[in-house]
Amino acid sequence: AAVPTPQRAGATCARPGDGYNADGSCYDERPAPLAPTFVPLTDEVEGTPRASILWVRVSPDGRTLEVQPRTPSNDPAFERLAQEYALKVRWEPATRGGRPVEGWTQWIFPPLGR
Hints:
Number of strands: 9
Helix content: 10-25%
């Protein structure tokens, strides 16, 4: 029988999910936004939507590379706004051994009150 081989650190760091970076193999310090992540509401959003929690992949130079829903908002229009907003956020990148590295982080994007 074939012996399963452990996943390489690069493979586990390529996709977000439960337990992501739990062993510290992706980074020592997670990415953090350079400014608050409150999402301005537009007229298409009615009422006060629930915040969106997104997985955000951040480049070593602090740009958002990709966004995936983790816990979507209860309002599809706001969820679209949150994902579009997240793509424009600038970040302090993740670091490993003091050097910037690419990494995913879960981040909350709440609605900015009207």
